[in-house]
Amino acid sequence: MYEINEFKAREALDSALSDKVANILIDAINLNGKASIAVSGGSTPKGFFNALSKKDLPWDKVTITLADERWVNIDSSDSNTRLVHENLLQNKAKTAKFFHLKQGDELSQETLADLNLAAKSSLLPLDVLILGMGGDGHTASLFPCSDEISEALSTDNDNVLMKVVPKTAPHQRITFSFASLITSKNTFLHISSTAKKEVLEKALSDDDKFVMPIRAFLNHAEVNTQVYWAE
């Protein structure tokens, strides 16, 4: 399922989405004493990150992580971890915890196993998931071009986190699996530009998730994906 929320300006979207997410996090903290949120990289969420970072809530009870990460050094311009530290873990959100997906030099099976255990015990189910979407319809690092796509999209996949090597994008990746992401209590797809609107329309025109993995979320009967789009 999905619902499309359109905004005339990105600033209006950032304000509305940050209000919505802040309220969800506050409710989760009031209910459970803690909250978790996974965000995505790219240039689109920077304004949203900035707006959310200024919200008045008990950030020390919030754990932030990424839906996926490139296996690069944190000082790399390709690092989503760096993006989050520079744009979200600022202002009032400085006291939030951050769960690092990229740990160590090598994405070994041992590292992956340790990360799976830690993520399963401390993060899931996510209170908030913010997805992005590529021009090929990938989301997180669920790439249609990768050899891992069948496993990544399987609802029977027991892995919370996976190694993915896309063939049409640089760097090996670590990503949350579809099976773990759909347990999120609130799922948002944050996109902007006319080009991304066209990709969304293409995604909604068919249901083959292996061609465009974002369809797995948009067409899932039990996942209400809130699409936030602005020009």
Task: Give a description of the structure.
Helix 2 (46-53) links the parallel strand 2 and strand 3 (62-66). This protein has one domain: Rossmann fold (3-Layer(aba) Sandwich), CATH 3.40.50.1360. It is built from eight helices and ten strands. The strands form two sheets. The protein has a seven-stranded parallel beta sheet, with helices on both faces. Strands 4-8-7 form a three-stranded antiparallel beta sheet. The protein is α/β, with parallel strands linked by helices. It is globular. 33% of the residues lie in helices and 19% in strands.
How would you summarize this macromolecular structure in one to three sentences?
The protein is α/β, with parallel strands linked by helices and 231 residues long. 33% of the residues lie in helices and 19% in strands. The mean pLDDT is 97.
Biggest sheet strand order reads 1-10-9-6-2-3-5
Largest sheet: number of strands, sense, barrel closure: 7 strands, parallel
Molecular shape: globular
Supply the CATH class. Answer: Alpha Beta
C-alpha Rg, in Å? Answer: 16 Å
Question: What's the helix count?
Answer: 8
Say how many strands there are: 10
How helical, in percent, are the residues? 25-40%
CATH topology name, in short, is: Rossmann fold
N-to-C terminal Cα separation, in Å? 23 Å
Strand portion: 15-25%
What structural class do the secondary elements suggest? alpha/beta
Give the domain tally: 1
- State the CATH architecture: 3-Layer(aba) Sandwich
Secondary-structure element order, N to C: EHEHEEHEHEHEEHEHHE
The mean pLDDT is 97
